[in-house]
Each structure stands twice: as structure tokens, then as C-alpha cells.
Design a protein that fits this description.
With about 290 residues, this protein is an all-alpha fold. Helix content is about 80%, strand content about 0%. It has helices at about 5-30, 35-45, 55, 65-80, 85-95, 105-110, 120-150, 150-165, 175-190, 190-215, 220-245, 245-255, 260-265, 270-285; strands spanning about 100, 290.
């Protein structure tokens, strides 16, 4: 192994062990609570303090414009909602083996009864959680990946994989990875301040305001058609943006990639494999027999 590869191998393994330790602290301090989020953040900030300063975590290279903001918003929302397609395709497969991961959204909307979300949960999952998650995932984690590999694309891809796996959900892991690719690009080019805003929009405006406060207040027969209509509009806008920006996307990947050896070394990292396997098993525990 060359000196350059050895440096990368050593750093990437250290990063993944820190990540595992951070998750352990997160779980011990209550999981998805303010204490859990802060515990994980403190671990990342403390053990990576020699490699990254707070300034490195919040760095940005471009200035956000109104046009770019809404283009990326439509793209991120479309990928976030792609779990509808994923669940629609996978639920019948699971059902054939006698399992379910929660059913299709149409069934969930028809069976659920509207119950107002407690105010503290809105603050935790709509604002506090997204802010801390962005500092951890697209701050310390993604910037560490970039520093060790010298590649923006590599850093965006692996931080997106970690972010998707973290959610431990059979239906949403893959869609969240795609969504996180967009968030990673935003953080890389425009800074994590903007991904905090996007993340809060997804958690608060989409999940709480749109689903809980608007859709769930509608008569049962109008809930799914309303959701589907909004998702289709967003998806069409996102598709148009992708077609218009396809050359820019290809050029960005080409200009900011790295050698394949770094990808191979990363997926061979023992703590990385442990991380992936652990969260895959946790997601499988959420399946239930029907």
C-alpha cells in the first residue's frame, strides 16, 4: 500500500470508529432526543478537532440565489418523496413472503386519525434535529471525507450513504440517500446553513404542516389524491430541472471525482461495514408479520 493510500486508510478507519462511537453515545443518551443529538455532535466535534475547525465545517464556496434555491428545493423534495414509489413496489414483494414494512401511504392515510403533534416534538424534529444532523453529517463527516480523499463527489456520496442508513427504515433508506446527494451538493457548494433550511423544510413544512395539519384534516377519500397530486407536480418540476442541468451535473461529477481505489478502500473499512450491517439489521427488525 502506497503512503498516500495508507494515510487515507488510517484516517477513514478512524473517522468510521468515531462515527460508531458517536452513535453509541447517541443511543445511550436517549436516541432521537435533544440529549442524543447533542451527545453525537460532541463526540464528532471533539475527536475530529485536529482535522476540522468550526470554520471548515461551515465553509461555503458559492452564493445562493433565489432561482437556485427553488430549483434545488424541488429536486430535493422530489427525491424525498420517491419513497412512495419505492414502497409501492416493495410492499407487495414483502407481503408475498408474509411481511410488511408499514404498508403503502394510501393505506396509512386512510387508517390514520388526525392527532395534533406536541409542540416540543415539532421543535425537536422540525428544527433542532435537522440543525444538529447537518452539522454532524454534512459538516464534520462530509468535510472529513473531502479532506481525506480530496474529492467532493466521494464526500457527497459516502455522507449520503451514511445519512440514509441512519434512518433505519426499509422504505425510506434508498430515497433518503438520493435526497442526501442533493443536500450534500448544497452543503458542499453553498454551506450547511442552507441544508439546515432545506432539512427543516422537509421535516417541518412537508411532514408536519402539509401531512399532519393539511392532509390529515381532509376527508379520508381526499387524502391520498391530494398527496399524489402535489408529489406529481414536484416530480415534474424536478425532472425538468434535471434535464436542463444534465450537462452541468455530468461536468461536476467529472471535475470533482476521485480514483476508484478510494471507494474500494472505504467499502473495505471494517468499522464502515459494521456500521452498514448494524443499521441494515435494525431496519429489518422493523418488519412485521402479517
Amino acid at each position: 500500500m502506497h503512503q498516500e493510500e495508507y494515510y487515507f486508510w488510517r484516517k477513514i478507519n478512524k473517522l468510521h470508529w468515531i462515527l460508531l462511537f458517536g452513535i453509541a453515545v447517541y443511543m445511550l443518551m436517549g436516541g432521537s432526543t435533544a440529549y442524543g443529538y447533542l451527545g453525537h455532535l460532541v463526540v464528532m466535534a471533539f475527536f475530529l478537532r485536529e482535522d476540522l475547525s468550526p470554520k471548515d465545517v461551515f465553509v461555503s464556496e458559492r452564493k445562493m440565489t433565489v432561482s437556485v434555491f427553488f430549483q434545488l428545493l424541488f429536486l430535493a423534495q422530489a427525491l424525498n418523496f420517491s419513497y412512495l414509489v419505492f414502497s409501492f413496489c416493495m410492499e407487495p414483494v414483502l407481503n408475498a413472503f408474509g411481511f410488511s414494512a408499514g404498508g403503502f401511504l394510501k393505506d396509512q392515510l386512510e387508517e390514520s386519525i388526525y392527532e395534533p403533534t406536541p409542540f416540543h416534538e415539532v421543535l425537536l424534529f422540525g428544527f433542532f434535529g435537522p440543525i444538529v444532523e447537518e452539522i454532524i453529517t454534512r459538516g464534520y463527516l462530509m468535510r472529513s471525507y473531502q479532506r481525506y480523499s480530496g474529492s467532493k463527489v466521494y464526500a457527497i456520496v459516502f455522507s449520503a450513504i451514511i445519512f440514509g442508513i441512519n434512518h433505519c427504515n426499509f422504505y425510506t433508506t434508498v430515497p433518503i440517500i438520493f435526497d442526501a446527494l442533493v443536500l450534500g451538493y448544497i452543503a458542499m457548494e453553498y454551506g450547511i446553513f442552507w441544508t439546515m433550511i432545506y432539512h427543516s423544510i422537509e421535516n417541518f413544512l412537508t411532514s408536519h404542516i402539509f401531512i399532519n395539519e393539511i392532509v390529515m384534516r381532509l376527508p379520508v377519500e381526499y387524502r391520498f389524491p391530494t398527496c399524489l397530486s402535489v408529489v406529481l407536480i414536484i416530480a415534474l418540476c424536478a425532472l425538468a430541472i434535471l434535464l436542463l442541468k444534465r450537462k452541468h451535473i455530468i461536468e461536476y461529477i467529472s471535475d470533482n471525482g476521485c480514483e476508484r481505489r478510494y471507494y474500494k478502500l472505504t467499502v473495505k473499512s471494517i468499522p464502515f461495514l459494521l456500521y452498514v450491517v448494524m443499521f441494515m439489521l435494525l431496519s429489518l427488525t422493523r418488519l412485521y408479520k402479517i
